[in-house]
């Protein structure tokens, strides 16, 4: 595929780029784009995350450090890091690439400039790649006026999202050839090395410590304040990183569960979550794990300075006694480590909720009995509580403890629980009510063969 006419300069993306030692950004971009060129399955996964489905004949070409014909200033100053063009035979789809490594972030004016250049040259999208995390590629760390995004799409990948997608693909083993698998293994090895400049989210925002202290002293939060919005923004990044951490550990894609409104409108999501933080002093997220008994609800309580991981199960309806329902749950968790794990029994209506440690539940089903009602539990909540006390305010320590708590909860609870499924109906051994119990299979009442 030839270089597009609107580009006057650009090198094909190389798997082994020849760049100066200081050009780590260019090197990482070139290696990634070369992997997109060379590994069919990898480009299908990455472009699939943008909603693009590639046919068997689709081809991808990529260039680095491109310069537009109509952008003379970029020759000496500001050049996009890359360009990809996907050809399906009938039409092309193209996207401008701008990437940053380490703590560098895309500047708003730079992004506006690239959007204008891409739109003027009939391109379809601009994709940014940094160490910043977003809930999904259609969200973006920079909020821009909608008029700038008319007739062009804006996407964002974090470097760790790229590494995770490649890792999951390697774990699946679904490659047309061993050569492509080897190539992607080497790319993951390169991008995963500290020297590449690619990092994961490891610290909350700079206002985190003061915000936690303010809540501890019963201070009021303003939902529109910079400290609240920055905290929520950091939490959104950590949610995504948490999904990637769990995905790599499980070898399965763990997704963030969002409402349709929040999936489509990240600005509204930020606004709603900032309001929720100001009111409840909580940060919440929900993780979807493939084939798990339920979603994992994660809550950071800034007032109590605790982290809670919770799964909710429907109690077995075919068991009529409270003890039988509790024993059904206890059998599943009989080999779990019990420290910090609790069970809550929920009953319909206004009937009393009861709670006990998992250790107490395993010792006796009576631990969840109610002294005020005979109503049996309809739902069980199993949760893991981590009380961080003073460590909660540490911007790095909070992330460390959170990313330790969720895998621990999943290992001790999540992977052991099975949702209750109603048993299949049983034959009642009754005569056919129509009186046809003497019919032979395959014959009608007149003895003719049935159709």
From TrEMBL:
Spell out the residue ranges making up region: Disordered.
420-451
- What is the superkingdom listed in this entry's lineage? Bacteria
- Biased-composition ranges for Acidic residues? 435-451
What protein name applies here? Stress response protein
Which organism's genome codes for this protein?
A: Natronospirillum operosum
């Amino acid at each position: 595929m030839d270089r597009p006419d609107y580009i006057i300069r650009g090198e094909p993306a190389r798997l082994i780029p020849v760049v100066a030692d200081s050009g780590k950004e260019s090197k990482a971009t070139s290696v990634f784009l070369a992997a997109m060129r060379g590994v069919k399955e990898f480009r299908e996964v990455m472009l699939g995350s943008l909603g693009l489905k590639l046919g068997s004949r689709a081809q991808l070409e990529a260039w680095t450090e491109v310069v537009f014909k109509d952008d003379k200033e970029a020759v000496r100053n500001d050049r996009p890091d890359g360009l990809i063009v996907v050809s399906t035979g009938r039409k092309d789809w193209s996207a401008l690439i701008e990437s940053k490594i380490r703590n560098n972030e895309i500047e708003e004016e730079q992004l506006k400039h690239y959007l204008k250049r891409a739109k003027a040259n009939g391109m379809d999208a601009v994709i940014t790649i940094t160490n910043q995390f977003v809930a999904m590629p259609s969200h973006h760390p920079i909020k821009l006026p909608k008029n700038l995004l008319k007739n062009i799409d804006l996407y964002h990948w974090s470097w760790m999202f790229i590494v995770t997608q490649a890792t999951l693909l390697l774990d699946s083993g679904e490659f047309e050839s061993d050569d492509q698998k080897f190539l992607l293994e080497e790319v993951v090895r390169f991008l995963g090395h500290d020297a590449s400049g690619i990092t994961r989210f490891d610290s909350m925002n700079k206002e985190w410590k003061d915000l936690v202290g303010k809540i501890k002293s019963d201070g009021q939060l303003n939902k529109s304040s910079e400290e609240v919005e920055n905290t929520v923004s950091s939490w959104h990044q950590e949610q995504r990183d948490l999904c990637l951490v769990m995905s790599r550990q499980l070898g399965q894609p763990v997704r963030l569960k969002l409402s349709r409104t929040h999936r489509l409108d990240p600005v509204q999501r930020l606004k709603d979550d900032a309001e929720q933080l100001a009111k409840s002093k909580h940060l919440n997220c929900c993780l979807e794990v493939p084939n798990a008994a339920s979603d994992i609800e994660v809550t950071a309580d800034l007032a109590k300075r605790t982290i809670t991981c919770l799964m909710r199960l429907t109690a077995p309806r075919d068991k009529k006694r409270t003890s039988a329902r509790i024993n059904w749950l206890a059998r599943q968790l009989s080999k779990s480590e019990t420290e910090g794990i609790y069970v809550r029994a929920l009953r319909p209506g206004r009937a009393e909720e009861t709670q006990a440690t998992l250790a107490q539940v395993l010792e006796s089903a009576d631990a969840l009995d109610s002294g005020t009602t005979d109503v049996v539990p309809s739902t069980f909540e199993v949760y893991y509580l981590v009380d961080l006390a003073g460590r909660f305010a540490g911007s790095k320590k909070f992330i460390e403890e959170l990313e330790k708590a969720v895998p621990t909860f999943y290992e001790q609870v999540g992977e052991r629980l099975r949702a209750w499924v109603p048993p299949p109906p049983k034959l009642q051994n009754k005569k056919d009510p129509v009186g046809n119990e003497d019919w032979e299979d395959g014959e009608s009442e007149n003895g003719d063969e049935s159709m």
